[in-house]
Amino acid sequence: MNRRPLLLPLGAILLIGWAVSGCKTTESNYRQAYEAAVSQRQEGSGVDSTIYARIRNRATNSSLVVGVDSLPLRTESIGATKDGGMTIDSLGRYNVVVGQFKQIFNARQMKQRLIDSGYAGAFILHTREPLYYVCTATSDDPQSIFEAWKRVKADKSVVLRDPLPFILRPAHKAR
To answer: Which residues, at least 6 apart from 163, have a Cβ–Cβ distance to it below 8 Å?
Structure first.
């Protein structure tokens, strides 16, 4: 009886078994990858050191004082979003931001919900990242923007997540 034809399949099975068992991911491999990612984040490398982080860091946070009240104010370079309902020329010095999104379609949906809820002047602005801001009002007058901010803050139909609402001042209007 010839055993040679039997050895070939048996050898192939052993070789495949050895290759599969040698490629296993272990808990120590996962731990090493996790620790490397944590180390990169702490050192400032990785995603947070990208151009997006630098753009975000250029935004300055302060306060807009109106009478005895202080509103959160962010000064940032922004642009008017195409079909967003606002042009850069008609944009006021102060804008009430009630939503911020990474995806334009989410910003458009919120803008439409705001219009349906009585905020006819709702519009969308964007940063260079891009991050899309949905706004309910724009004005050069701090008192009128404070009234618009109070209105949206008290409106239970508008779902706001921290840090919203805030006042956005375009960087080109901050001078």
So the answer is: 72
Is the bond preceding 142 in cis, omega lying within 30 degrees of 0? Answer: no
| Token pair listed for 109 | 């949906």
Q: Which residue do the tokens 């606002």 mark?
A: 86
Specify the pTM: 0.66
**φ, ψ for residue 31, nearest 5 deg:** -60, -45
At 120, list the tokens. 């006819």
Q: In this predicted model, what pLDDT tens digit does every residue of 32-46 receive, in sequence order?
A: 777 777 666 555 444
In the numeric block, the tokens 């809820």 are attached to 117
3-class secondary-structure state, position 8: helix
State the amino acid at position 170 in one-letter form. Answer: P
Residues 147, 140, 97, 61: is their CA dihedral positive or negative?
A: negative
